[in-house]
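ARCHIVE CARD
Drawer: 12
Card no.: 0347
Subject: one protein chain, sequence and derived structure
Cross-reference: see card 0346
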Amino acid sequence: MDNNLEFMDNGLLVSVDWLSFTLSAFDNVEDVLSFLGFDPRYFLEMPKGANGYKRMRKYANYNISILYDGTEDMGIHVNVSGIGIHALLSAFRSTLRCDTPFGEGFNLFDETVLSILLSEITKSGHLTRLDIAIDDKGANYYSLDDIEDRLKHLRVVTKFRSHRHMIDKTTLNEKIGHTIYFGSRQSDIMLRIYDKKLEQNKNLLVSDDRYVSHDWVRWELELHRDRANAVSEYLIAGKSLGDVAIGVLSQYFRIIDLTDTNRSRCLEEITWQLFASGVQKLGLYVSQREKTIEDKKRWIDKFVAPSLSLVTLYEGGDISYLKNLVYNNVDRISFHDRELLRNFEMQ
């Protein structure tokens, strides 16, 4: 019902596995909960906050947290892990109910709950993280060993500059985890391919009802900041979750047959063609916004202000040093920055 799960014709299952966003248009947590459609009674106050926020409330049954009481410009931050995505979309869906000539209905038309939610988040704030999972249940296309083999033989073409392998084992040398990472957690996009069967069964007994017996490989795109918002724009514009996931993945990663000495001209191997299912590649180019004087003020507040305060206190509160610093460096202002000042004065 919430359109977070998309079954593709080639057997892959695509879903949103993490969503983080900051809302700046709300003054308190209760307003945010109302906006998202949640009952405040389910959110428990935690002993402390995180990430610069003094306070936190968490959903009792799902991994959903709301961080608040930060500085004035921090807004209210919401983190929703994979298990909480369905709860989030179900709650938000309830806010879209409307009366129709035929009784109560939903004001959805051709849009999905996910795209409407992302649109409303964009109006009230911005995304900070969006993860999309592509599940190959049955490992019908590639196992982790297959990917390692393609890497070894230089048959992977990728825009990621680095990759690393991680295998977890017990003290008895039993494999309990296998992941290949492409890119860095510090960048705006990272790809991880991992053995979901091992991950699911890591802490379970064989008799557990949740035990996974079939092979299962997950391809997961972790997108931050501008890249997360670029993907959100595709979804808001009406592209399906599957087309966005495969389109972005194919832009950054593909597997080839060595049909040419120039790897960039090599044809994609047939298995990859079936995996990508003919979906068009999607770029995530984000044009750089022109820096403003307000941007420079924020940079000074964040990185320079403590040093300026230290020097002023050292001078006994005398700000002569700061005045001299300003007037003695006027000639060092770049032509571009002078234009910023001139355009501001003309407004």
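Annotation on reverse: The two ends are 50 Å apart (CA to CA). The chain has a mean pLDDT of 88.
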